[in-house]
Amino acid sequence: MSPASADIASQPEQSTHIGGDVGDFWALMKPRLMSLSVFTALVGMIAAPGHIHPVIGAIAMLCIAVGAGASGALNMWYDADIDANMQRTAARPIPRGRVTADEALTFGTVLSVLSVLVLAVTVNLVAGALLALTIAFYLFVYTMWLKRRTPQNIVIGGAAGAFPPMIGWAAVTGGVSLDSILLFALIFFWTPPHFWALALYRCRDYERVGVPMLPVVAGPDETRRQILLYTVLLVPMALAPAFTGLGGTAYLIVALALNAAFSWCVWQVYTHREGRDADTHAKRLFLFSIGYLFLLFTVLLVERLVAMVIA
Amino acid sequence: MSGRKGDNGGSVGFGAIPRGIILGIGCVVWLAAFFSGLPKWISTLVAIAVGLFFMVDHNIRTMAGLTEAKRRERTRNLAIALALGGMALLFYLATMVRLGPNVFSRPM
To answer: What's the Cα-to-Cα distance from A91 to each of A31, A86, A88, rounded to whole Å?
Structure first.
């Protein structure tokens, strides 16, 4: 039993617990995070060379969605104690007492096992193995090991969020290739600027619950420097698909524009360090980074779909 | 209107749709699909759809008047039932796609 479940189990309202609604279990699956995983996996699947039967493709997407949701539920189970003390997460089903920690654990475990087994049996073993690795990485490496121990938590843990396009790719090809690794690298290097921008203006939340996010441990200035460094690594990763054949001319043009805008946002965060301006620019970077990733993957998707229609 | 009234006086479930008509149409479509030359999966889907309709309808009709705890328990059970049914359908479809519609005709 995690510290989270122990704390939650001892709360007095557990005696009057009447069980969560379907909506509470849906919230346990972190629908927003799940939708990003599903979208990037879909792009990986469509961009992959080869063909997949639409029914098998739909099953693969469902399994990836359920697997992502399951890892979200397991994350909420383990982190329930800190979620209750953070403004951003206090309304989650476990801190609110709608779902018990044990229910979340059971729910997440059952869905994890089912999603991996179904993906492995109906699609292929590589995709199933990658999904299992993703869930295990998110739960054991990120949530249980890194998150409360090191400011590099989201750098290494970010790999879990980067796997979905590889899973989608593997569902079609049955393997891993340079292009699928590029998609992985794109999300991997995007994660630190994205989360550290959030951490910059939610610093007190993380400090209060003892999560060693970079701004808490190394300070906002070092965080800004790290955001800048990771952006320098991110830009070539974002442009690379245009040169490997994964993306076309449209992708190159959009990627150049988005990276210029992203770099500008990062520079604003780097140079505005005091007062309300600092928070405003950090928030702007956080929000823009979501649109940035979404648009890059959308262009890849549209380009591939157009090519398929023309062919 | 064949739908039973809920405690609040309003109709519950798919109250506006006469259940007898749904059952009748479902049976006719199923029989037609089963005995015509259409693929068997069509009649299977019809049977599943009619079964699902009655299951969901029954649950919604009897939901009114339950305590909050019972209502949540009922919706959870319904969601689990639908998920399990969906999984059965999913395996059926995957089998048809992977092994083809003549899977049952193959020698053991």
So the answer is: 14, 9, 8
At residue B106, the pLDDT reads 65
3-state DSSP assignment of residue B65:
coil
- Give me the mean pLDDT over the A276-304 stretch: 94
pTM value is 0.82
Question: A168 to chain B, minimum CA–CA distance in Å?
Answer: 17
Nearest-by-CA chain A residue for B68: A18
Report the distance separating Cα A161 and Cα A36, nearest Å.
Answer: 9
pLDDT digits (tens, 9 = 90+) for A7-56: 444 444 445 677 788 899 999 999 998 999 999 999 999 999 999 999 99
Q: How many CB atoms lie within 10 A of CB A281?
A: 23
d(CA A10, CA A23) in angstroms, rounded, equals: 24
**A-contacting residues in B 7-46 (Cβ below 8 Å):** none
User: Which amino acid, residue A194?
Assistant: H
Which are the contacts of A181, defined by CB distance < 8 A and separation ≥ 6?
A166
CB contact under 8 A, B94 and A122: yes
Scanning A102-131 for CB atoms below 8 A from B yields 114, 118, 121-122
Query: What's the gap in Å between the CA of B24 and the closest CA on chain A?
Result: 31
The Cα–Cα gap between A262 and A282 comes to 12
| Å between B67 CA and nearest CA of chain A | 10
Contact (CB<8Å) A20/B72: yes
Residue A82: which H helix or E strand, with range?
helix A80-83
Q: Which two tokens stand for residue A20?
A: 């969560």
